[in-house]
Structures are given as C-alpha cells and as structure tokens.
Amino acid sequence: MITGAHSIVFSTDAEADRTFFRDILGLPHVDAGEGWPIFGLPPAEVALHPWDENDVHRLYLICDDVRAFTLEMQRHGVATTPVEEQEWGLLTELTLPGGGKLGVYQPLHPRPHSS
Fold first, then answer.
1. To 10 degrees, the CA torsion angle through 13, 15, 17, 20?
2. pLDDT digits (tens, 9 = 90+) for 44-79
3. What pTM was estimated for this model as a whole?
4. What's the distance, CA 37 to chain centroid?
5. Which CATH superfamily is domain 14-42+56-107 in?
C-alpha cells in the first residue's frame, strides 16, 4: 500500500540548500523537471508522539556515528550544535546554507527493518 515517503524542507534559499544536499551530504537525486531536484533518502522510519496540537512534524536525518558526522560537517564549514545525549539517541542540529536547522541523530533505540 505505502511505497515510500516524501519529505519537504522549506527554505528561504532553496538553491543553496539543494547544493548542500547534493554536494555535502552526497544524496542521490533526479531532475523532477525544469531543474527541480528530488533527493533520495536511505530507509526511513516514522514515530508518532503525543503533543498538544496536530500538524507539527519534524524531519531528522539518521547516522551511525553522530560525532564523526559533526566533525565532517565542520570540515565543510557547516555549523552544528554540541551533541546532546538523550535516552533515545545522540542528537545534533546543523544549520543549512539557507539558515534553516535540521536535526541529525544516532539512534540508541531499536530500528524497524525497511520494507
């Protein structure tokens, strides 16, 4: 029934952020038409958390070693926050070229197998 997920990152400088996703993160991409790239992501998961309101969503990228990831981002001049240890994972936040923030974490919880 469900074959994938499509996430959208809104940006005040989408072109700079697209370049970052392509050149720094190295994500595969295709031209969806008129030069509009759509980026492929590794296997994904979704969690449903209780909250006080609806329509609040978050996108986090997942990595195997968040500390190594932050060092790599720093080599590229990308700002990251100090790694925070949560009971569910090790978390950092990077600043995209367009100024937006994106969470990246190393999970400490069990992960589902991709379908």
1. -150
2. 889 999 999 999 899 999 999 999 999 999 999 999
3. 0.88
4. 16
5. 2,3-Dihydroxybiphenyl 1,2-Dioxygenase, domain 1 (3.10.180.10)
